[in-house]
Amino acid sequence: MPTLYFERLIKEGSTKGKMAGVFINAELVGICGVTFETTLLPDAGEIIQMYVKPTSQHLGIGRALMRFMETVSLDCSIKTLVLGVEPSNKTAFGWYQGLGYRFDQVLSKEANVQYMKLSLL
C-alpha cells in the first residue's frame, strides 16, 4: 500500500503541511489538511482534504477546522489559501463562499475543478 501524503509528512517530521482532526466521544468526525507545497500560487497553502461526517455536519465543525487551518497557515507565513471544488458540488462552493473564499477564474483552468482563494492578510 502506498504511503499517504500526510502520513509521509508525519513520518518525516515535515513542516510542509498540517492535518487536523475533530473527535466526538473518541470518534473521528472531521478532518482538514493543508499543504504548503502547492504550485498554484506563490506563498500559498492549499486545502487538500476537508471532510466532516454527515451525521456531524451543521455543528460548526467544518468552520472550526477551516478557521484553525487559516490560523496555522498564517503562523507558517502563508499569505493565501486556495482550494478546489468540483463544479457539480454547489453546496460546498456556497459554503466556502460563506467563509470568505472567492472563485478564481485564472486558477480554474481545469474544467473539472473550480479554484477558490482567501487572502489571510
From TrEMBL:
SUPFAM superfamilies per UniProt: Acyl-CoA N-acyltransferases (Nat)
Family matches, as CDD domains: NAT_SF
UniProt domain N-acetyltransferase: residue ranges: 1-121
One MF annotation (Gene Ontology) recorded for this entry: acyltransferase activity, transferring groups other than amino-acyl groups
Family matches, as Gene3D superfamilies: 3.40.630.30
Record has Lyase as a keyword: no
Keywords: Transferase
Pfam family, one: Acetyltransf_1
Presence of the UniProt keyword Nucleus in the record: no
Record-given protein name: Putative acetyltransferase
Native source species: Marinomonas spartinae
